[in-house]
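Input record, target 12 of the design panel.
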């Protein structure tokens, strides 16, 4: 074979190899990792640092829980490329004001099974420690929002003061209400008591009433109905606002188009729907940044009003830049 022909053959073989036209010996596949990145997302709101923390997800048969015909729920989920049971996030939010470290809700702890209870690990992964938290503000006392406060009645945030709306606290921490509750509801009371009472007994519980500035830059925002004292929180820094909505919405695929649809967990369904519409309208009108406990993680974005329905506009991913804080 001439040298020219040999060189040409070598070049052809090389090109074929590069473009995968010639089979190469197989390399053993790497094992699947089986885990995702830690569940936190961080951004700047004015001069405040906000960290969204994921506590995990829960599978809910929402077609049985939403107060509308099951077929309508299933059709709405299908339109959004979803199915039931629906995997729903459980989110909490950590705000560093520069002077205080504030946590809004604490996840489920061990009250909701193995798919939740991830908040503490994600808090640590985000660079913070539970003993650094100064204040904890509860949107309400359902188990997926208070369970992370205590483990076996041992305080998990040793330096924090826990705050909740006073009617909410009086309702869920009442032994009389527990005794008279239906059997199916007793666990909600027991979970709230086991989680919150260690702080009450330690003198680390401080209820509030109505709309008040709780710490500089953090104001309570009554949004009753889901529970008797359900409260949202308005965070404000350097002219930027973020409304933490708690459980004003559970299933965006349904409740954005039909905000009057309530869920079985609502204490007062009519009031819950009215609160949702009032808050959504104001947030859309004022272009306020919002976040929801059960919106897909990190649950942060804007609401756009379109007649009597709403559209969810998730926040763009943004990088953190020292000295140049920008919320979005």
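The sequence produced for target 12 reads:
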């Amino acid at each position: 074979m001439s040298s020219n022909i040999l060189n040409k053959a070598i070049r052809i073989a090389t090109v074929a190899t590069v473009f995968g036209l010639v089979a190469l010996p197989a390399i053993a596949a790497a094992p699947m990792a089986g885990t995702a990145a830690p569940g936190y997302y961080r951004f700047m709101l004015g001069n405040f640092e906000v960290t969204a923390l994921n506590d995990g997800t829960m599978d809910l048969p929402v077609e049985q829980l939403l107060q509308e015909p099951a077929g309508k729920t299933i059709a709405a989920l299908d339109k959004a490329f979803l199915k039931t049971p629906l995997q729903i996030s459980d989110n909490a939010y950590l705000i560093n004001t520069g002077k205080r470290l504030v946590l809004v809700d604490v996840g489920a702890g061990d009250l909701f099974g193995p798919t939740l209870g991830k908040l503490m690990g994600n808090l640590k992964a985000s660079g913070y420690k539970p003993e650094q938290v100064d204040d904890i503000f509860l949107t309400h006392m359902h188990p997926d929002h208070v369970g992370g406060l205590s483990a076996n009645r041992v305080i998990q945030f040793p330096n924090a003061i826990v705050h909740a709306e006073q009617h909410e606290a009086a309702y869920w921490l009442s032994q009389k209400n527990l005794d008279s509750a239906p059997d199916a509801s007793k666990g909600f009371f027991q979970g709230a008591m086991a989680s919150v009472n260690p702080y009450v007994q330690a003198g680390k519980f401080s209820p509030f009433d109505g709309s008040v500035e709780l710490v500089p830059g953090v104001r309570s925002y009554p949004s009753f109905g889901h529970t008797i004292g359900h409260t949202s929180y308005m965070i404000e820094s350097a002219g930027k606002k973020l409304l933490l909505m708690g459980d004003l919405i559970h299933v965006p695929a349904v409740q954005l188009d039909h905000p009057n649809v309530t869920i079985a967990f609502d204490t007062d369904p009519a009031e819950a729907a009215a609160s949702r519409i009032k808050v959504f309208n104001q947030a859309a009108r004022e272009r306020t940044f919002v976040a929801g406990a059960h919106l897909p993680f990190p649950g942060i974005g804007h609401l756009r009003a379109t007649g009597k329905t709403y559209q969810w506009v998730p926040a763009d991913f943004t990088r953190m830049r020292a000295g140049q804080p920008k919320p979005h």
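Confidence is low (pLDDT under 50) at residues 12-22, 323-328.
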